[in-house]
Amino acid sequence: MSTNAEAVVRAAYHAAEGSILDVQGFMDLFAEDGVLNNIVAGESYRGEHLGDLVVFMGTLAPDVHRELHRFHVMGDIVAVELTIEGTFTGPFETPAGTIRPTGAKLSIPTADFWYIEDGKIKEFNCYVGLSVMLAQLGVQPDFAATVTASAHVPS
């Protein structure tokens, strides 16, 4: 049996699908003071920026799809294990410049926690497997630069 909280969360996933990409519809599911927290990146989005991550993923992988593996509803709290899938055909803007698309297939492990209040999303905490995503995009850590930089730090 589907609950109101589950229906709200499923509507959010549907709006964020690459074939749909209804950014305004996604944003409209949030409470006026709702927040989306990208926990791994340490970023929070509110108000007119609630759809920023939907736009980012839709640009990075226009065919983005979220494969929902486990869906747990506990009253007004919904926990979801999922994989974000898609093809890296859009640019990836970084502080160092733009990574050009490679056509790589993405399969990013993710855990989402949704907190629903009065039929609206009050808080959405997203835990994306960032290291997996970066590796699939071809972004490798620069250990040599880190070792060099740490050699100049006083002990």
* Topology, number of strands: 8
Roughly what percent helix? 25-40%
Quote the distance from N terminus to C terminus. 59 Å
Overall morphology: globular
Low-confidence stretches: none
Main sheet attributes: strand count, strand direction, barrel closure: 6 strands, mixed
Rg, rounded, reads 17 Å
Secondary-structure element series:
HHEEHEEEEEEHH
Find the structural class using helix and strand composition. alpha+beta
Strand order of the largest sheet: 2-1-8-7-4-3
Q: Summarize model confidence as the mean pLDDT.
A: 95
Strand content: 35-45%
Count of individual helical segments: 5
Task: Please give a structural write-up.
β7 and β8 form a beta hairpin. The chain has 5 helices and 8 strands. It has 155 residues and is of the alpha+beta class. The longest helix is centred in the N-terminal third of the chain and has 12 residues, at 4-15. It is globular, with a radius of gyration of 17 Å. The strands form 2 sheets. Strands 2-1-8-7-4-3 form a 6-stranded mixed beta sheet. The model has no long low-confidence stretch (mean pLDDT 95).
Describe the secondary-structure layout.
Layout: H1 4-15, H2 23-28, E1 30-38, E2 43-46, H3 52-60, E3 65-74, E4 77-87, E5 92-94, E6 97-99, E7 105-117, E8 120-128, H4 130-137, H5 143-151
Parallel strand pairs: 1-8
Antiparallel strand pairs: 1-2, 3-4, 4-7, 5-6, 7-8
Gist?
By secondary structure, the protein is α+β, with helices and mostly antiparallel strands. It contains five helices and eight strands; from the N terminus they run H-H-E-E-H-E-E-E-E-E-E-H-H. The protein has helices at 4-15, 23-28, 52-60, 130-137, 143-151, and strands at residues 30-38, 43-46, 65-74, 77-87, 92-94, 97-99, 105-117, 120-128.
